[in-house]
Design goal:
single chain, mainly alpha, Cytochrome Bc1 Complex, Chain D, domain 2, globular, binds heme C
Amino acid sequence: MPHRVIAAALAFLSLSSVPGLASPDGAAVYTSARCFACHGQMGDGGVGPRLAGDRMLAISQFVAARILLGTSVMPAFSDNLKDEEIAAVATYVRTNWGNQFGSVSAADVQATRKLLGIAEPRTAGSK
Ligand code: HEC
């Protein structure tokens, strides 16, 4: 019997790591937040800089801060994306198109928010 319990627990754990169920999918956020419109579907740039091979992406807090604050051209996403979504899209740009800069967690984004003095989004929990 204990084996069945363990098997059920493992099945639950693997299910909860499927992207889109437990955590947002970075590729989906890259599309829905329209990052691709400025940075290219393949991270090759356009209005915004090329992200493929961009060594600034090695600095995870810079990536999170840029997404939270935006720039004169790039919109700020601090109110529109949850920390989990920012972490997912930051991870996506850091680990695709040949980039190997590793993942960013929601806790990292929360820490960056604190550093920047930005509150949690009011929309947290919705969407
Ligand atoms: C309207 C166009 C636009 C959209 C939409 C946009 N960006 Fe940007 N992004 C820019 C521009 C322009 C810069 C360069 C800003 C600067 O250097 O001052 C930039 C900079 C960045 C940088 C820093 C790159 C570097 O080397 O300086 C990252 C990372 C980034 N964007 C990610 C994203 C992500 C992720 C999204 C979607 C959540 C997104 N951007 C949406 C235009 C855009």
